[in-house]
Design brief:
single chain, about 240 residues, Rec A Protein, domain 2, 3 domains, five-stranded antiparallel beta sheet, 8 strands
Length: about 240
């Protein structure tokens, strides 16, 4: 074996050792980067979970606030369309009693209806046009409210001072929107004589197979419908159930 061959062999060995060392350094750095990426992914996942919990807590707080808001209004009536200033001369209580006496005389003769408070709804700022302020009536008894609402529904129309007015339950804006969200389904169920109702504050109920079913939202109803082919067919268009 010549000296030149041994020299070349030694040089190749040194190069291999150097490459091995560089490879080990590279692998070490790759492992460090992978650990850093894994750590970042863990932190991102933890952050998403925290944000998800915060979103759930916020929704729970909003739902609870709406429930409290609505519970404070359980005895309230909302009189829409009462002319502004109608109560100026003799007060809002007189206006309310006149509306009942003129439109629902049988109920107006009852003396047990207790009025706790009457006021105009707070003004809403709108730079484009003035917003009418409705009359809010707080009754002493929830049953009185239901009697008035039922009597108002039985009338073809209500009027006061020559103007058409409406009497409704008083709910928060969010609850009104939730109740309106049932309208299309309510209409279809009513056409099928399934006795739909909107329960307080915004649950849908109807009669199905001899039982009363109630639902918190459309998703809950949609899940129930999947097990009821006949109901599925009835609500296919309104719930957008695929064929």
């Amino acid at each position: 074996m010549t000296a030149e061959f041994r020299s070349n062999q030694a040089e190749i060995k040194n190069q291999l050792n150097e490459m091995q060392s560089k490879l080990e350094v590279l692998m070490t750095r790759i492992n460090e980067v992978e650990e850093q990426v894994s750590d970042i992914e863990d932190k991102l996942m933890a952050k998403r979970e925290t944000e998800g919990k915060k979103d759930e807590q916020l929704k729970d707080h909003e739902d609870r606030l709406r429930e409290i808001n609505d519970s404070l209004r359980t005895k309230n009536l909302h009189l829409i369309g009462v002319p502004a200033g109608a109560e100026r001369d003799r007060g809002p209580e007189y206006v309310f009693k006149q509306i009942i006496a003129e439109n629902i005389p049988n109920l107006g003769r009852e003396t047990g209806i207790q009025i706790q408070e009457i006021e105009r709804s707070p003004p809403k700022i709108n730079k484009y046009h003035s917003t009418p302020r409705h009359l809010i009536v707080k009754l002493g008894n929830y049953k009185d409210k239901e009697k008035i609402l039922k009597a108002a529904r039985d009338q073809t129309s209500l009027t006061f001072m020559g103007r058409s007015i409406r009497v409704t339950a008083d709910f928060s804006t969010e609850t009104w929107q939730a109740r309106k969200g049932w309208q299309d389904i309510f209409r279809v169920l009513n056409e099928k004589n399934m006795q739909p109702r909107i329960l307080y504050p915004a649950r849908l109920s109807f009669r199905m197979e001899g039982e009363i079913k109630s639902f918190q939202d459309r998703q809950e109803l949609k899940e129930y419908v999947t097990s009821k082919p006949a109901l599925q067919e009835i609500l296919r268009g309104t719930l957008k159930i695929p064929l």
